[in-house]
Structure prediction request, 314 residues.
Amino acid sequence: EEKMKETGIKCLWGTTNAFSHPRFMHGAATSPNADVFAFAAAQVKKALEVTMKLGGENYVFWGGREGYETLLNTDTALESDNFAKFLRMAKDYAVKIGFTGQFLIEPKPKEPTKHQYDFDTMTVLGFLRKYDLINDFKLNIEANHATLAGHTFQHELNFSRINGVLGSVDANQGDMLLGWDTDQFPTNIYDATLCMYEILKNGGISPGGLNFDSKVRRGSFENSDVFIAYIVGMDTFAKGLLVANELLKDGVLENFVADRYSSYTKGIGKSIVEGTTDFEELAAYALKNDKIVNKSGRQELLEDIVNRYIYKNL
Prediction:
């Protein structure tokens, strides 16, 4: 609190570490041991209280141990049910104490656990919908976690956005050649541009924000390295925002996509979108229109357009 007063820096979100201590070796909310479940609940209870006291605007759940190593000893149905009960109890307690911050789940497919339940955006969405939690939680998307899930950063942001659950972002980057979370400071202007493109299309992510879940590399051990890392991270995303805004303002990608799907704005395509057709009508239509002509996806052209906008703003 003293440092917040000194600097004017606010608390973006709170969380709790329910993965490092040996008690969580088999999970926290998904542990086979009810005593561990109770301990994890006590930690989150305290963390919610502290987050509220510090004026935190979000609370993040990252399940580093919420998963399994082998199915031979795992009751996945019970663990999933318990995880949902845990999240519901957390939300209920937040309401009870008057915490109005946004609740976030941070997807990650693995590490430290072999298979984590919050694998990626679509997996979390299925979970939230199954347990009727979809109105209480949004997602905190991390670039490096997308990499580990075999997705691009933009993929995770996009699917969160179109499903109405893009809540906050951990701005970092990983190493595509490594199979673990390197949490590097973001320097990739291309990824930052496409990230900010999705955020702008989302109308922003407030009360979420951009959090540098990042660290300098092991060989960068001088104080100046940390200083420079934060500067390059901020510069990268600031420039990415400018480029993304130009792309959206000029509509170069939006116009291409609209034209590509224009067959759904008239005729049989419009009927498909409006849900007013059926297989019988579609089959009859297909028999009369068997000379199908596709258009090029123009991927290389679009990638060149993004590059040119980046070059123009350097």
In short: The first helix runs from residue 2 to 7. The mean pLDDT is 97. Residues 7 and 93 are 30 Å apart (CA to CA).
